[in-house]
Specification:
Blueprint: H1 2-17, H2 21-32, H3 38-45, E1 50-54, E2 57-80, E3 83-106, E4 109-115, H4 121-134
Antiparallel strand pairs: 1-2, 2-3, 3-4
Helix pairs in contact: 2-4, 3-4
């Protein structure tokens, strides 16, 4: 019984070590940043990529993107005239990641936060992590 408890506790600790602070900040930001004034948003998130007025609401959008590149080299060996030659075969894999975080403000105060579909939550965290860190946690 104690051994099983130790295994379960060990698994929990290992999984806790896999937590990503940026992804967690992005997940919490949707509730924790509601109510902050526009000035505070600008000071912690920086200058937005887009601003749009929609009726009595203001939409402020931040965009972050990155590209992951992985290069594989496979050496094919060929024997020509008794000599062994290597011919490299190179393959390049690229994957793009992006996040758009759109804050909707009413009367200069954040009303809600939406992320784009198919976003990379860690990239979203790079937009909001400073804001989440400076805004007092809800009680």
């Amino acid at each position: 019984m104690i051994r099983r408890l130790g295994i379960v506790l060990g698994a929990v600790l290992v999984l806790a070590g896999c937590a990503n602070p940026r992804s967690e900040a992005a997940a919490r930001a949707g509730t924790e940043l509601v109510g902050i004034p526009k000035e505070m948003l600008y000071s912690c998130a920086g200058v937005p990529d887009r601003e749009q007025q929609v009726g009595d609401r203001e939409r402020i959008t931040y965009v972050r993107g990155s590209t992951y590149t992985h290069v594989e080299v496979d050496n094919d060996d060929i024997v020509i005239g008794g000599r062994r030659l290597f011919r490299p075969q190179t393959t390049v894999h690229r994957q793009n990641f992006q996040c758009e975080a759109t804050f909707t403000l009413h009367d200069g105060v954040v009303e809600k936060l939406d992320y784009s579909e198919g976003r990379d939550l860690e990239l979203c965290g790079t937009i909001v992590e400073t804001c989440v860190a400076v805004v007092p946690a809800p009680r």
